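Researcher: Let's continue the batch. This sequence belongs to Putative TetR-family regulatory protein, and it's 222 residues. Same format as the previous ones, please.
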Amino acid sequence: MYDSYFKYGPYVWYEQYMNAPSRQAPESSRERRRRETRTALLQSAYEKFCDVGYGAASLEAIAADAGFTKGAVYGNFSSKEELFLVLAEERAESLPDEWRHIEPETVGQDKVGRAIGSWLADVMRKRRGWFLANAEFSIVAARDPELAARRLAALRHTHRELGCVLLRFCGPATADPTALGVLAMTLIDGVIINAALDPDLDVASVVATGLQRMLPDGPSES
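Model: Same format as before. Here are the structure tokens for Putative TetR-family regulatory protein:
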């Protein structure tokens, strides 16, 4: 810690010193309760949105399932839209970890589409309700410019992350990762809706074929 004083000067040293774990104030019981309440509400909201959809889920039901009143929701979120956005943004942060196994060292270029298709087929079985709630919310957000802007910002992050995964299989960067991610996610979103209507749809194969054809110099899935 003191080495930084001589290396970076007193101001940087002071910032590091004050932000060191030992200098941070312990969490108060009130802060802990608020954090626990927020976590419980987010979990309840996720389960309710998955179960009945975005439109049919009420704040009263979400609060009740978590053991609180509706006032607890408004104490943490300004609206139902805000609650869903926070939840969606937090869930989206975990997607890169779910794609981490899709690496050139373990998956050939001709199989990257199949790897992502298999991932989607698996999560569709596990989180079908959540995917449908997301599709429903996107339609709601499209009618509200402010809501749409925040929704799009979160989606663009996901687009870029997915695009970066795909570009690992194309040698030197040959395309904008965000643009490639948008194209790939457009395919995935369409497959999600079709799979919701047609349970016999081979999700993995459709995604594999589509992604392989859109990759720069990517071969078609055989």
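Researcher: Any comment?
Model: The chain is about 70% helix and 0% strand.
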